[in-house]
Structure formats: C-alpha cells, structure tokens
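Methods — Computational structure assignment.
A single polypeptide chain was analysed. Its primary sequence is given first, followed by the predicted tertiary structure written as structure tokens.
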Amino acid sequence: MTSDRAHALDLDAYLARIGWSGERRPTAAVLRSVHRAHALGIPFENLDPVLGRVPSLALADLEAKLVRSERGGYCYEHNTLLAAALRALGFDVTLLAARVVLGAGPGDIRPRTHMLMRVGVPGEPVPYLADVGFGAAGSLLEPLPLLAGEELHDTPRHHRLVHIPHGGPLEMWELGTDTGDGAWQAQYAFTLEPYEAPDFEVINWHIATNPRSPFAHRLYVQRTTPDAHLSLTGRTLVVTGADGGREERQLADAAEAERVLADTFAIRLPEGARLPE
C-alpha cells in the first residue's frame, strides 16, 4: 500500500485540467461548478486492471495520471482526486462506501465497493453527496443535498435521494435516477459511516485483481459531454444524446478500440501497452 500524506495536490494544474476558473472559496456554488467541471472534464476508464495493473491511489500518482496525462480512472481514483481538491478549497470531506444496485438481480447483495463522499460546506446546515466516479449514464453531474426526498435536476439528468429499509442502526440512503418515463432507477445504496483511505486500498486491490470482478477483464469507459454520454463496454460503443436518442455499434478489434479511445474519449494507452484481443 502507498501513502503520500506529504504530497500536496497541484490545485492550479487540477483546475486547469477540468477547465475551471473562479473564486476559490468553499461555497455551494463552487462545489457544484467544480463537481460538474470534473464530471465533464476527466473520463472514466479501467484500463489499468484490464492491462493487469492495480491503479495507484497515491495522490502523486493520481495527479500524474488523471491531471497531467491523457487518462482517466475509476471511482477510487476520481473521488480521491476530487476529495483532495475540495479539501484544498476549504470543504470538509468524508469518504463513504456504497453498494451498487444498478443491474443487480432480485435478492443480490453486493459488497460495498463504490467510493463516494459527504461534503460539508462551511456555514450550511445540510451536507452534500458528491460523486464523480460512478461509471454509468445515471451518474451525478452535480452534488446533491443529503436530504431524504431531495431531487436534483442536474441537467440533462434528474436524481433523487430516499431512505430505504435495512437491518442496520444507520439510515440507508439510495440514489435514484429518473429514467425519463416517470420511473426511478436505483443506482447505489449507502450509509454515512466514514471510510478511510486504507479501506479503499483494500477494495481497490480486490476490484482490480479478483478474477470475478468485471473490471479486471472487461473494458469500461465512459465520457460525459454537454451534449451526450459516451460509453465503451468491451467492444460495444454507445452514444446517448441529451434527448435520449441512442446509437450503438460494434468495434471490429482491439486496434479500432484503441483508435476510439484516443479520438472519442481522449484517452491514450500507456506507452508500449496494447489492448487484449
């Protein structure tokens, strides 16, 4: 495991990477705009596990990869980086872990493997749920106040938080996304129990190396633009417009996938690396 407590994030470089400029104060408006800029500015990808590597969560390595290179990352990388930036801006950040319920079958109980965070804004009584690392079309573009029944129209998306029953002593929260037809689709569920960086070192290792982990052997890449959501799963490329229109095509081989990564997702493989066929 790695530790980089002495490394300070280059906030100027991070903000330049996500294309954000403004007054650097810990306000709700700054939180919303930085969150959205990050979500639009850095793609989601799991290239390292697919290439047989465990992504480093050391801040210096995340800065080199997500800020200074043409790369993205998955939830632990994105949210560790955002947490460091928010703390540098004066926000109070607590790391949380969620069970992903999107795509789960009836009765399935998945482990808590998704990283997200609770963000406190000085002077505001209600904290926010922040998460720029959920690799799905239903991911948050802006933070959502942690209030049961709260809805967020983070255009073009629509989210809400509700409490759901469970057997533990802490309240269980569930993030849902409006599917566009009046129904809500659950994304993940979580409590407000704090997690620490070493907890995610263990979870990260499991997700990157366990043969049963989908991230260890199948490519998952996501990019959100102001006009569309782009997804590459294996060799299937899907472009979903803001109006809900959907285009899908199959890529021919690894060489085409590498070209699409560079041209469509602005991601370049590490030097000398090649996608498996």
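Note: DSSP finds seven helices and 13 strands in the chain.
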